[in-house]
């Protein structure tokens, strides 16, 4: 009878059920290599007289391979899509943070002191986070705040100043769609990554079972069969 994974081992130690299990060293750890192995094994199994497993037919195995390869490609594509938008948003954030002090100076000069100028900060889209006033740290909220800043500057006495409407309007215009795209893509990336991981968790047990299936059915020549199915490391 098999021993439950929560029972003490021979040494008396109780296995930690939360501990991540070690991966089978007979399978490649890399995703690309795993997908390559899966496809080669599916082709070899289809061409082989070796029957399907009771719980996994040849068709089910191929479907699992193709699902994993597709989700792996989707995850990589969405991650690539995120990078340019994220980089540009960081550049705009830096430009905004560096230039915002001039808007604060305009308010201080107009109203006679920094404290009196702060009373108008919210009108210009600024919020207090911690001890400092600035644009909201969250990207969607920051996009809204930039639009509010542009509107307030346009109605102010310093609309035509160096850091007035003409300076902030293109920043706000570019920032809004980038912030929305970055948020959407980040969500899609997380979703794609979760799908890829789930598909990998489905495929790995199938590959392990097929490997043992080959050894059981070809006890004398299983190493050569493994090679034909792509299981030896030089194959992937």
Automatic annotation (TrEMBL):
Residue ranges of the region described as Disordered: 1-33
Basic and acidic residues bias locations: 16-25
Protein name listed in UniProt: Uncharacterized protein
Biased composition (Polar residues): 1-12
């Amino acid at each position: 009878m098999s021993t439950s994974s929560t029972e003490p081992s021979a040494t008396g130690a109780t296995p930690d059920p939360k501990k991540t299990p070690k991966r089978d060293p007979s399978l490649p750890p890399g995703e690309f290599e795993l997908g390559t192995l899966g496809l080669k094994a599916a082709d070899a199994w289809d061409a082989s007289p070796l029957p399907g497993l009771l719980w996994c037919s040849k068709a089910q195995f191929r479907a699992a391979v193709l699902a994993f390869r597709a989700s792996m490609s989707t995850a990589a594509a969405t991650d690539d899509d995120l990078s340019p938008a994220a980089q540009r948003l960081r550049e705009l954030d830096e430009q905004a943070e560096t230039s915002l002090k001039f808007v604060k100076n305009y308010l201080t000069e107009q109203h006679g002191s920094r404290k009196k100028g702060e009373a108008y900060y919210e009108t210009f889209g600024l919020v207090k986070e911690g001890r400092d006033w600035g644009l909201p740290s969250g990207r969607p909220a920051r996009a809204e705040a930039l639009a509010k800043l542009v509107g307030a500057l346009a109605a102010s006495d310093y609309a035509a100043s160096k850091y007035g409407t003409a300076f902030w309007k293109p920043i706000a215009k570019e920032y809004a769609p980038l912030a929305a795209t970055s948020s959407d893509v980040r969500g899609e990336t997380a979703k794609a990554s979760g799908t890829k991981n789930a598909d990998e968790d489905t495929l790995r047990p199938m590959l392990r079972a097929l490997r043992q299936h080959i050894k059981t059915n070809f006890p004398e020549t299983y190493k050569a069969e493994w090679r034909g199915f792509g299981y030896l490391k030089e194959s992937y």
